[in-house]
Each structure stands twice: as C-alpha cells, then as structure tokens.
C-alpha cells in the first residue's frame, strides 16, 4: 500500500468516484470531503500528504480553502477544476496551489501530476526543511553556496538575473510559478514591464539550458500563467 495519504475534495459524485477509484487502483490511501468546510476540517485533522481540490464547492470557493490551508500548512495542493481561464489558474496558484489540472482530465495525467508532487514532497522531507547546498536535475547542477550552475559538467555563463531565475525555479521544481510570483521575487514588483522582461530573460536562460541542440526541456511554459521547472529523469 502506498503510504501517501490524499485528501480528495470534490462534490461531483461521478468525478469523485473516478478519482477515488483511480487512487484505490494504484494503492493510494485517501480520505474525502464534499465541501470547503469539510476539506478544512479533514486537512487539519488528518494532515494529508497531498490535497486534490475542486474550486466549485457548494459552500465556499476553493480558492478560500487554499488560503485557509496555507495559513497553517505547506501541504501540496493540486487543483482539479472545470475553470479553464488563465485568470482562474493564476488566482488559485497565487493563493498557494502547487498545480492546476483542468477538467476533463485523463487518469494518466492525474497520476503523472501526483508522481511529480510526490517526488517534490520526498525531496522536501529529506531536506528536513534545510535547503540542500547542491541541486541536481538531469545534467543540470546548481551549487547555491558558490553561486555557480553547470550543465554536463561545464559552467553556465549566466547573468545575475538568469541565475536568480534558475535558482527560484529549481527551489520550486515541479511547481508552476506564476508571472506575478516570479517578478515579485526577482524585481520586487509585478509591473507589466517586468513581465515583458521576464519573458526575455526566460528565453535566453532556456537557450543556455538547451545548448548544443539538446532536446532536454528543463523549463516548461504555461502560456498566460507562468513557468515550471520539470524534473528530468
């Protein structure tokens, strides 16, 4: 039995049954809630490893549930919602969600998102809250203390902004970071000019990570939302 405990917050019975059947088939443990109040109670009582959260709940909006959980816990929250507008995704991610899956979704995609979140959770637990001095992801290696990054053993020549972006993405590997979150961390604001600059810096950083015609993708673009560093096997 998988030791990961998942809280499923979904009031639509067919969708709830699909999710819980999938979890049961793949040996995940789970608990359920059908509304926001129940979700907050179950989260505080059982401290699940991951929360799968619908936004359209009958009592309170799912974004409010995210904000309440974030006031006392960093447990990973994956939103599963029929809301597909970029503004809805950005609102949920800015509130503290770790990932966003749009309905209808495939079982394979749900399981993939769970695996990514589990890997990130395992890394966080292994570090016991202390940031590792070195980050490794495929051929990419970042030595935070030295302020250096390497690809295939060769040092990457990055500008200060590019290096800050790379560190921010690596420290949140597997998590979608919104434009607003990134620009506030890098420039201390979320002005439109900074978002335009972000796109330029991200493009140059991606070129340096994919040099020599390599096909490995380290940075994934979520159009209109933000960026995510992918975990490379």
List keywords for this structure.
single chain, 233 residues, alpha/beta, Rossmann fold, Arc Repressor Mutant, subunit A, 2 domains, 12 strands, globular, transcription, Stage 0 sporulation protein A homolog, transcription regulation
Topology:
Layout: E1 5-9, H1 13-25, E2 29-33, H2 36-46, E3 50-53, H3 62-70, E4 77-81, H4 86-95, E5 99-102, H5 107-127, E6 134-137, E7 140-143, E8 148-151, E9 154-155, H6 160-170, E10 177-178, H7 179-186, H8 192-209, E11 219-222, E12 226-229
Parallel strand pairs: 1-2, 1-3, 3-4, 4-5
Antiparallel strand pairs: 6-7, 7-8, 8-9, 10-12, 11-12
Helix pairs in contact: 2-3, 6-8
Q: What's the short story on this structure?
A:
The protein has 233 residues and is an alpha/beta fold.
